[in-house]
Amino acid sequence: MKKVVWGNILCNDPIAKDVYKMQIQSSEMGPVKAGQFVNIYLEDKSMLLPRPLSICDAEEDSITIVYRIAGKGTRELSAYQAMNQIRVSTPLGNGYFIEGTALGGQIDDYSGKTVVVAGGGIGVPPMVLLARRLKEKGAEVLAAVGFQEEPFLIEELKQYCREVHVATDRGTCGFHGNAVQMIKEKRIDADEYFSCGPKVMLKALSDFCTEKRIHCQVSLEERMGCGYGACVGCTCKIKVKTNQGMEIQQKGVCKHGPVFFGEEVVWDE
Ligand SMILES: Cc1cc2nc3c(=O)[nH]c(=O)nc-3n(C[C@H](O)[C@H](O)[C@H](O)COP(=O)(O)OP(=O)(O)OC[C@H]3O[C@@H](n4cnc5c(N)ncnc54)[C@H](O)[C@@H]3O)c2cc1C
Ligand code: FES
After folding, report:
1. Mutation test residue for ligand 2: of 2, 37, 231, 238, the one with most atoms within 8 Å of CB
2. Which atom of ligand 2 is nearest to the CA of 225?
């Protein structure tokens, strides 16, 4: 059940150009799954809608978010200081399917498996907690992360990943190109791929995995309104198996996602 709580900002520091890392402490946050996000409520009441941000890492009573200044809301956020208080939702969405069953199979044993976490730009933050959880489940984790120009969260990923491959669009650092081009050209092979980033990148990874007949889970960062299923502001088309066969249904990304299997998503619209 969604709850909005007050949290204490422990730090809010720049880590790259226009990119900030904020740690929020709250004893009411509850358990966090990799791939979940929180809604951040801003002080400026002209911004009625909360801003959704992925959980980058979590401890027992705190979460870390990493955000890029995109507009008015994230600019306001960047001005908050340690010791300020902030209104934040408890974790939202379903996160990555790394435990229990999905697509008819048991998926919580990753021992002996190699997985790739692939992030692009502001899709990199949720890869940190995901890599951590996959490593805890026995996986050999490789990261393939792409940035426009300046990489961030590399040291955090190195804590959980055997290899961290970096790509930049402008070739300023690492591989010249995007994360999916790098995966293909450097042959960064895995038993399963997990991703978050721009839709074009997610589609490219999903096509690549479909060709190879391996699973890929993608986190769709659609524009959102309420963030918890009340406004239908974030729907996307998802293929669903029913008794009548395969159907295409409109699903709210905030409630049914943000993570889906690549093969479930209707990409071409
Ligand atoms: C589930 C989810 C997780 C997210 N996680 C992160 C994260 O970890 N770090 C991060 O920096 N951002 C993340 N985002 C995007 C973030 O929510 C937006 O950048 C933010 O809401 C913009 O608010 P603003 O008031 O600063 O900008 P606005 O003034 O609202 O918008 C500024 C610009 O950003 C674009 N924009 C707004 N929302 C989105 C979106 N969802 N996707 C793409 N473009 C958008 C607008 O079209 C506009 O061009 C996430 C979004 C979703 C839905
Ligand atoms: S954002 Fe309101 S239903 Fe998803």
Report:
1. 231
2. 1
Q: What is the CATH number of the domain that holds 38?
A: 2.40.30.10
Please count the structural domains in the chain: 3
Mode of pairing for the β-strands spanning 51-54 and 37-41: antiparallel
CA-closest candidate to residue 256, choices 131, 102, 51: 102
Same domain, 161 and 240: no
Question: Does residue 16 belong to any structural domain of this protein?
Answer: yes
Which domain, by its residues, includes 52?
Answer: 4-89
- pLDDT value of position 104: 53
74 is in an annotated binding site: yes
Q: What's the Rg (C-alpha) of the chain?
A: 18
Distance from chain centroid for Cα 110: 20
Taking the model in full, what pTM does it have? 0.94
If we measure between CA atoms, which residue out of 100, 94, 136, 114 comes closest to residue 189? 114
pLDDT computed for residue 48 by the predictor: 85
